Amino acid sequence: xxxxVTREDAPLGRKRVLTATPVADxxxxxxxxxxxxxxLSTVEDELLALDADLGVVVAYGGLIREPIxxxxxxxxxxxxxxxxxxxxxxAPVQHALIAGDAETGAxxxxxxxxxxxxxxxxxxxxxxxxxxxxxxLLESLSVSGRGCSRGSSTRSxxxxxxxxxxxxx
Length: 169
Known about the structure:
This is methionyl-tRNA formyltransferase. This protein is α/β, with parallel strands linked by helices and 169 residues long. The chain contains 4 helices and 8 strands, in the order E-E-E-H-E-H-E-E-H-E-E-H.
């Protein structure tokens, strides 16, 4: 792992103490370089310089645009907390609960310029309990989705993204 990208520190609590994201804390504890940005365009040069083979996104909440989208040799994969294409975009777990869905899940898919529209490599299905909250369901999906992400390269023949062209630098 070359680096972890997460949101910038934000004020938290009644005293509005500037606080790093849990992702930043975990990455720092693991000794990984942390890149903090609310917009990827502000750290574009830093991301391109990583010369990564694959980018992995989990709950970032922003679109990845060119040239960052094409920078990793094998593109980007995303762990999305829904059974695509059912709930594309923001708040998929909350939408599933509001709609009364009997099940939801996590999907690992290839990022493309369109929102949540790339090929799906792996999915995990989860039954939604009668009294389950969005917070509980997201916590559960983050654990089961981790396994989904790790295994995505072996679960589907489509899960071997073809190398993308490198842009001249």
